[in-house]
Amino acid sequence: MVYPVALALVETANAVFKPDNRCTAKVEGALTMSLPKAAAQHLTSNPTPPPLKLKLSPLIIPQSFIINRKVISLKPPSMDQTIEIDMKLLQTFIREELSNAAQSARVNIPLLKYELPVMGDEIAPLIARSTYSMSEDQITISVELSINDKFANSNFYFPRIVLQNAINGKPTTIQSKPQVQWNSGAGVLKWEKVDVGKELLHNKDVSQARYTPTCDSTPTNTNIEFELSGDVLSGTDVCLDVLEGGYSMHTVVKKIRSGKYWTEPAITEEVPS
């Protein structure tokens, strides 16, 4: 039997954008393998399972990584070297998973986690800038988004991007472009965008809201939530290092999710015309 292996690389991006265009970004990642339930059951009963090795090729070498010692017994010196699965440990792990999640169609097997070096916006998928402008009786919040140039040759898209600004008091006469949602219970202005892709490489996305505050207003950060599908910031490729067969690569999924991700606004005062 040839076992169809699926692999998922999921990275979590954390970033803070300052008004002076400085950015501090941190990325954490995880590699997970999965097998269809039938294949997993067959593998656990195989007295001589074929050896399984993985080869990762990251463009940015992680500063640290940890392996799941429930399925990998030997940690390589660096993540870009061959990683060998301990087949006895793997069989035991799969048996436990099958007994704990009998209704699941697949068995997921965490393999490793890693951290990239702390860097600037070169490892931030979305570049964000915001401004908070005050006039005599109105506040204008503006948020500008662009995509990291490193994704120019990637087949990626954002299924969803959410921008949120907490504000003091209940605003009146809100004018916005595009349409903004006002959550009175949470005191939050919210923009939600769906199906955003390579158009961000050539045209910056600008969201703006102008409103009249009902009490003293203070600048707030814009919190950003998103998921990117199709690539990872580390530039990691992963493949099976199999000489004797026994496995086939069914699919490789790459995603980036936002963690703590926000922009601090530059504060300006509008001059009356």
Compose a concise summary of this entry:
The protein has 273 residues and is mostly beta strands. Helix content is 10%, strand content 50%. It has helices spanning 37-45, 87-100, 199-202, and strands at residues 3-17, 23-36, 53-57, 64-67, 83-84, 106-115, 126-134, 139-147, 157-166, 172-177, 181-183, 188-196, 205-212, 222-229, 237-240, 247-263, 266-269.
Describe the structure.
- The chain is mainly β and 273 residues long.
- The chain has two domains: 3-119 and 230-260, Immunoglobulin-like; 122-227 and 262-269, Mu homology domain, subdomain B (Immunoglobulin-like, Sandwich).
- Helix content is 10%, strand content 50%.
- The chain is built from three helices and 17 strands.
- It has helices at residues 37-45, 87-100, 199-202, and strands spanning 3-17, 23-36, 53-57, 64-67, 83-84, 106-115, 126-134, 139-147, 157-166, 172-177, 181-183, 188-196, 205-212, 222-229, 237-240, 247-263, 266-269.
- A nine-stranded mixed β-sheet has the order 4-6-2-1-16-14-9-12-11.
- β7 and β8 form a beta hairpin.
- The longest helix has 14 residues, at 87-100.
- The protein starts with a strand and ends with a strand.
- The mean pLDDT is 93.
Number of helices: 3
- Our measurement of the CA-to-CA distance between the termini, rounded to an integer number of angstroms, reads 76 Å
- How much of the polypeptide forms β-strand, as a percent range? over 45%
Mean pLDDT: 93
Q: Helix share of residues? A: under 10%
- Classify the fold: give the CATH topology of the largest domain: Immunoglobulin-like
Q: In sequence order, what are the helices and strands, one letter per element?
A: EEHEEEHEEEEEEEHEEEEE
Can you count the beta strands?
A: 17
How would a crystallographer describe the biggest sheet? 9 strands, mixed
CATH hierarchy, class of the largest domain: Mainly Beta
Q: What is the radius of gyration?
A: 23 Å
| Oligomerization | single chain
**Overall SS class:** mainly beta
Please name the CATH architecture of the largest domain: Sandwich
> Runs with pLDDT <50, length 5+?
none
Strand arrangement across the biggest beta sheet: 4-6-2-1-16-14-9-12-11
What's the shape?
elongated
CATH superfamily of the largest domain: Mu homology domain, subdomain B
